[in-house]
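Dig into what follows:
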Amino acid sequence: MLSHEPTAYNYPSELSTMSEEDKEIYYRTYFGQSHDYYYDKLEQYQAGRKFTFNFYAFFLGLPWLLYRKMNRFALFLLVAVVGQSILLSYLLEQKYINTTNAFWYERGAMLFWGLVTGFFANYFYMRQAQREVDNAIAATPNEDTALELLSQKGGVTFIPHIVIAVMLLVLLLMGQ
């Protein structure tokens, strides 16, 4: 059955005629407090330099992704790391590797996932920003409404961190 929900680009808007320079205020609103840094990365991305290294993403990984509301990438990283841990546990149980090798594999995997996150974080964040800005412009009747929507969808959040901390605290208290 066909969906009757309109896509973001079915709404009448100025999206098709708006230049990237005209969208600057939208991007800066989406990026939040670090708008200068991320707008510079966006310009690099649009100029063809798609992959730039993000040290925060490298060192903080999953918490940084959640902080920046990059939930899809965070879910991918979580599934990949958990899958790698399950595989490593299996290899240890079956005695395919010893604990010393497992230790070094785990450290190598940590470095690998840190590098993947560091190199791909800005790329995926710029793609997400472009999608959210285009959708907000296309779906809202005026600039103020679009900017309000972008300030809610973009920026940063500590909500996932608080939820995880409460869950860990509850699990810790239940275990005692």
